[in-house]
Amino acid sequence: MKPRKSTAILISVWIATLVIYVFVKPPTGDHSGLPHMPGALSGTPVVTAHPQ
Q1: Residues 32, 38, 43, 49: is their CA dihedral positive or negative?
Q2: What's the pTM?
Q3: C-alpha torsion sign, points 5, 11, 15, 20
Q4: 26 pLDDT exceeds 80?
Q5: Cα–Cα distance between 37 and 31 in angstroms, integer?
Q6: CA 6/CA 17 separation, integer angstroms
Q7: Count of beta carbons in the 10 Å neighbourhood of residue 12
Q8: What sign results for the dihedral spanned by CA atoms 10, 16, 17, 19?
Q9: What does the pLDDT read at residue 4?
Q10: Between 22 and 45, whose confidence is greater?
Q11: For residues 32 and 17, what is the distance between their CA atoms, to the nearest angstrom?
Q12: Would the CA dihedral through 42, 45, 46, 49 be positive or negative?
């Protein structure tokens, strides 16, 4: 089964976007200057008290 012309264009644009992202990927940066927060993502929910 041959794909439609619009499908072929869509797939080629998606692949081109992926290739451009791989070659022009923004730098991740060095996070060594940021403070370490060990409890920030502990997985426990934050519970706040709401007055009734």
Answers
A1: negative
A2: 0.44
A3: positive
A4: no
A5: 12
A6: 16
A7: 10
A8: positive
A9: 87
A10: 22
A11: 31
A12: negative
